[in-house]
Write a structure and sequence with these properties.
Layout lengths: L1 H20 L9 E3 H19 L3 H9 L9 H13 L6 H16 L4 E3 L2 H16 L1
Amino acid sequence: MTHLLKIVFGFSVSFFLFSSLFSKDNPSQLEMTLHDFMEDYTRPASKHLKKTGDADPLLKILASVPEMAPTEDKVRWKEIIDEKLALGKPEDTCKACHTEFKKDYKSQYRKRLIPIPKEIEVLQQLLSKSKSKD
């Protein structure tokens, strides 16, 4: 009987470990607060734009930002970004969003963790390498 329990227990543990590797909630996905994201990703991309004129990293980051918004604000965050991009001023999206949402964000969402898309993680690594070359 104990041998059977060991086998069942072994299968259970193996199944749990195997299923956790392939679950949709990927525990290895980077999460951070929105403030930290802006400091670690958006700010370096903005500096890169000012220094080199290359807006591509910032544009890629801005494309993912509305998905990081609280559900009720996603549409408005996208509108703000689209308005500034239409004017050719991607660097102005930060100020516009901060002006509208800073008070609510600080009171309600400051400590909320957001998942960081893998493609954005790669951008941050590239921006870090670019910065270290200077």
